Structure prediction request, 196 residues.
Amino acid sequence: MKKIIILTLGLALFLPVLASATIGVGIGTGKIVMGQPLMAGQIHTLPVLVVLNTGDESSKYGVSTISREDQPEFKPSKEWFGFEPSEFNLEPGQSQIVQIKLTLPIKGAKPGDYFVFLQARPVSAVVSKGTSIGVAAAAKLYFTVAPANIFQGIYYRFIDLYSNYHPWDTIVLAIIFSAIILRSLGKRFKFQIAKR
Prediction:
């Protein structure tokens, strides 16, 4: 009888240790400050964000933006940000480098100071039936949008697209230009293929 009681007490003490698992997340960057004012229409590659699984079980993670309600700075739109990858799996102790692109719209980016949190979190942290937890880690992002008009925005977007997609942009422009030349030559000269 004593053995059964000791065995039951031992199992009761040991089982909660088996059931406890931690899901954690860490960020390798605390604050990102863009030193120069940004112009509307530009596409910016921000410093990378390193996301770390600080827990002891594998989990799926996601990256997004979040703002404070009472912040004095402007809140950038979530659509301005692109994360690559935006979701990924991490084993315990493993890390993932996330590339961040900030695309300021040609129209709609008010001049002024902006602030946002770049947040990493487990996508679905379920500990047991019906119980979920919400853990997250975030880096602070500060940037300023300089005053610009729509023509400057279109100019900066063109320059950014050219630098990001060169030489494909030149190839596409060459094809369009060749088609226009061939069409205008076709209107001036009549070409006929004679049958033999």
Notes: Residues 4 and 79 are 62 Å apart (CA to CA). Confidence is low (pLDDT under 50) at residues 7-19. The chain has one domain: 19-187. DSSP finds three helices and eleven strands in the chain.
